[in-house]
Each structure stands twice: as structure tokens, then as C-alpha cells.
Amino acid sequence: MDDCQNCTPTKKCILHIEKSDYRTDFGKRGFLDNFYEELFSYVINYEKIKNCIKIKIDIDYSEETNIKSEKFFEILNDEEKLRKVIINYFEMQNDEQLDKYFSSLIINKIENSDSSIDGSSLQYYLDEFFKEETIIFEQIFFPTYDARDKFNYMKIIRKLKKIHFDACKFTTKFFDLTDIEVFFQDCEFLDNFSVSNSAILENELDVVYQNCTFHRDVSISKANDKNYKINHTLFSDCAFRKKLQIENIEFEKGVFNNTKYDDDIEDKEYLKIDKLELKNCIINDTFILEKYAINKLDLSESTFKSKVKIQRCDIDEATFYNTKFKDLADFYQSKFKKVDFERTDFEKISVFSESEFNCDVDFKYTKFLGKSIFRDTVITGKLDLRNSIFDNEANFLDITSKKREKKEGQFIGEPIDIKVANRETARIIKNFYDNSNNIIEANRFYKLEMEKREKELNLKNNFFEWIIFKFHKISSNHSQDWVLVLLWILNISYLYYFVKKNTYYYLDEFLGFILLLGVCILIYLLMNFRNYFGKIILIFSFLLFMSYFSIDINEITNLINPFSIMTKGETLFLGLMIYKVIIAYLIYQLIISIRQNTRRK
């Protein structure tokens, strides 16, 4: 627009001035007529057309005698006559009418020859010129058109065969660009827009729309029952402010081909799509969505025959109903606030590494036919694998319910146990760890499996089993927490010690013990269950506190010893027997909990 001779610093020309809706622009007297005339003048370079046709005539009729350049035909040398012919060439959209017009136009007789250069030849040369010529529309603001209007500028567009739209704006809802090579770069579409299947003008990224912004809904759908196939990749680095709706389309290539960044991807801003619906489609080439912020993603009933990479995306709501992934499906570092996997097939590798699911995740009737990777995946809600099918190995290493800080490629801190929707989910993950001899991680999900089993038990129908599970949970967190067992041993031993020494002189010590016990329980509940260092400090603090009250530690140790009854020959009373049984059980749990990195039982 800076090069436009018709624009001034205070006023834009008819090509570059802002346009409104069709009714408003039509109501401005001469507005759309002037746009048509100026666009025609923008496209037509008479001197270039004339020279091109002369060169072609020289080539085609070089063997004819007595042909002199000044006698080619008078139309080429008369700009007004040439203009009239070209206007008719663009105005007449009916092929039969156009052929009839040019056939009746005798241009030049060739001397001493039966041949002549007539209008059909001129029509052919004009066709050839626009097949070879690339027209660049730069910063032009295209209004809405009506096919019935005399000033319908699509009559000009349809005659062109290679078009580069550079930083243009459009209020029109549709361009019929069939059989035209086009490339839209840095353009804006201000109204709803329907994408047509056009040929592609050669460009670096091999896409139709590059770095364009669509302010309203964009749709791609077939107009009839015939198969509708798009042969080229459509979008690269485009922003969609509203909905992108694609239905019943087969893509020979991918839908998106965004720029690859050599630098850190974190420096790239999120592109935006309000809603992306890709329903009942077939994508034959790689499908890539990278660093997009999407409010709603729906890939229902679609089949992806090549690799799918939905990476580093921020998605509020995603639906994968009856979606088929025939090759790699990679969701690396993507975030989901709500997601639905139902009847989804992952036929090869599926990757959810470092993905974040801030919601419940239910892989309902989902098939994992290839390897599945959930390494360092964050799931804040419940995970449900009960109705999933795994036909290959899976990796759930360091799956966690809370996002961890990452420095120099390494995560800091221990993963936090996820929530499982049912016992079967915990069992499935536990079995995968067992099969890979990862006993430590398997123990995490063994504990979750036991917790779910505990919730399944009914107090009335399974009273004794319910009691056992409750006691197992309280005493050792299902054999997972040796510090908890040790605290129980110390607390029960001190409590038995005070009962045994039930005198007035031990009242202060007993009250101190009760106070300390309450403090220990509170601290323990507030402490991270995997913070062993903090738990050890808690135990030593407990022992030091009790030593302060001058309690005989040796007596406590003797009480803890389950074999003291045999070594000292003392009488075994009922209370002492119960105490010894409890201590023996707790010591057993202590041993099991300490050895949890090698075995569970």
C-alpha cells in the first residue's frame, strides 16, 4: 500500500480502503463499480501482455513467409482495441459465448499463405499468458461480492491461474478458487469463510494459508454426496478466533504445517483456535498441532493414517470419540482441562509424556494396541483404565498428581500418588511395573489397589475383612510406610509403660506423653508421606522429649522386645499377651515396609 500511487497519507484508494458488509458497500454509489475497475487495471499490464503474445506468435509462425512484426495485427498496437478484447475476455464467463466471440474476430491474414491469425489464437495466447503469470495482490481489501452483479470481481479472479494474496483483507464468505494456484500470506478474513479445494501456488512451506487470521467461523465440508478430497496442506501458523469446522473430508496431506523453531519452543507464543472440529475425516499425512491454545477440540469419528503430534498445546476441552490413530499419537507436554477418550484406538505408539490432565481421565473402551507411554504425566483428577485394553507394554514411570518443577531437564521432588477411579486401574498399572521389575513403583500402586479394595468392602457384609484392611491401613499404610509403623511401636510401648506404672508419680509424664502424641499425629498428617527425612526427625524429637521426662528407655526397649517373655521367664498375663501380639505384628509390618523396595510380602 505504501507503493500505491492512488493512496495519500490522509486517504486510501478504492482498493485499500476498509470495506463493510455487502449492503453497506452496495449502497455507496459507484463504490463496488470503482473497485472492479481499479482491480482490473491492477491486474492488466497491456505492454506485458502485448510483448508476450508477440513472442509466442514469432515462435508459432516463424516458418511463414512475409510476416513482419508491424503487421502482427492492429489490435496489439492499439491499446483501446486490446483493452476492449481483454474486457470481453474477462466479462464473458460462458465458455461457448467466449469461443464464439473470439472465433468471429479476424485479426490478420498472412500474406502468401492460407493461414490466418484469428481471434481463437488470441484467446489461446491470453489463456497461456495468465497460466504463466503470477498476480500478486498486496494489501488489497476485498469486499463481499454477488455473482449476479456486473461488477462481480470474481470474473477477474476466475481468469487468473496463479495468485499470491499478500497481507490482504476479505469480507467475502467464499472464494471459488478451483483450478487456481493460490497462496494466502498474512491475510485477514473478517467474516465467516468457507475454504475451497484450490491448487497451491509454490511457496516455502507448501501450504495454502500462511500466518493468516480468521476472525469468524471457518468451515470445510463437501457440498454433495461425492467424495471430497483436499490435496494440499492448508494452514501454517494461522490463528482462528472462532470455530474451525471440518467434516467429511479426506486430506491427502496434513491440515496444519506450522513453522519449526530451532530455538526453544517456549519462546513461541500460543496460536489460538476457539473451536476445532475435525469430524468423520481421513488424514493421510502427518497431522501436527504445536503450541496452540484451543478452547474445544473434537476429533470424533476421524481416522489418522500417519503420525499425529498434538504437542505443547493448551486445550480446555477435548473429545476423541471413535477416533482411530493408525500411527504414532504424541501428546507431549499438552495440557487438558477436560478430556474424553471413548472407543479410541491407538494402533501404534501413544505418548502422553509430561502431559497434564487437570481433570478426570477415563479411557473408556479405548484400545492401546501399541506401546503406551505415560512417563511424568500429571493427572490431578481420577484415572480410569477399567474399560481399557492393553495389547502391548506400557510405561507409567513417575506418573503424578501434582506438577513438579523441572530444572536442566530433570524433575525436582518425588511424584505424588495419583487418584485411581477403581481397583482395576491400580492393578493394571501395578502389573506393568511388576513385569518390568520396578518393585518400588509397583508398591505405590499396590497401596492404591489396597485402598480401593478397602472402600469396596462393606462393614455389614465383610466385617472381619473390613477390620483387617482398616488396621492394615492405619498401622503401615498397606506396608508402605515403615516410619508410621515405628511411631506406632513407640507410642503403644510408651502407653503400655504408663499403664503398667499407673502411679501418682507418673501423672506428669503421662500427660506429657498424651500432649506429645497429639502433636506427632498433627505433624505427621501435615507432612508429605514420602518425606522420610522429616519423619526421622519426628521420631528423634519424640525420643528426646520422652527422655526429658526421665522415662527409663531401657524399660521401654524391654517392653518392645517380643521375646522378653521367654528370656526372663515372667508370667504372661492377658494384657501383656495382647500387647506382645500387637507389637509382633507391628514389627513384622516394619520389616515388610523397610523391604518394600525388594518385595511386598
Automatic annotation (TrEMBL):
Protein name: Pentapeptide repeat-containing protein
Spans traversing the lipid bilayer: 482-499, 505-525, 532-551, 571-591
Alphabetic keyword roster: Membrane, Transmembrane, Transmembrane helix
Highest taxon, organism lineage: Bacteria
